[in-house]
Design goal:
two-stranded antiparallel ribbon
């Protein structure tokens, strides 16, 4: 893997985890918004690096027995899905969003779950930032050695 490829993987991960943090922040901002449905970010690997995927890629190269194929890796942000759990029903007959019985649906955002997911996203962002800075340091050392 080249230095630029590792930088690209790190930058794609920064973008994905940054979007993930934004979604968690929007969910936290709408805790008290009636009828708000929590959004869950979806992240996927850019390549199939499972054992099954590795074996499938190796069967294409029959004569390269014992060699592992080159897998780039990385993460991609693939949108969001709505949380299917329903919020509590609250009796507010004068509210503009109330149904014919006077009930509104509270937001289904759980602040504890949302904060823990946001902290995980922040730590993943920081880890990928560290990967980029280490890659930059290695590139600078390579330039220094080459002088």
């Amino acid at each position: 893997m080249s230095i630029m490829e590792s930088m690209n993987i790190g930058s794609n991960a920064l973008r994905a985890h940054g979007l993930r943090i934004d979604i968690h922040a929007k969910n936290m901002a709408n805790i008290d918004t009636p009828n708000y449905v929590r959004r869950i970010p979806i992240l996927n690997a850019t390549e199939d690096i499972s054992f099954h995927g590795l074996m499938n890629s190796m069967k294409e190269d029959v004569f390269g027995v014992g060699t592992l194929p080159y897998l780039q890796g990385g993460v991609a942000f693939n949108g969001c899905v709505e949380d299917p759990t329903l919020g509590d029903k609250i009796y507010r007959p004068g509210h503009p969003d109330a149904d014919e019985n006077g009930y509104i649906r509270a937001s289904n955002v759980n602040p504890m779950v949302e904060m823990s997911d946001a902290i995980l996203a922040q730590r993943a962002y920081e880890a990928n930032l560290a990967v980029i800075s280490m890659t930059k340091a290695m590139a600078l050392k390579a330039v220094e050695i080459g002088r």
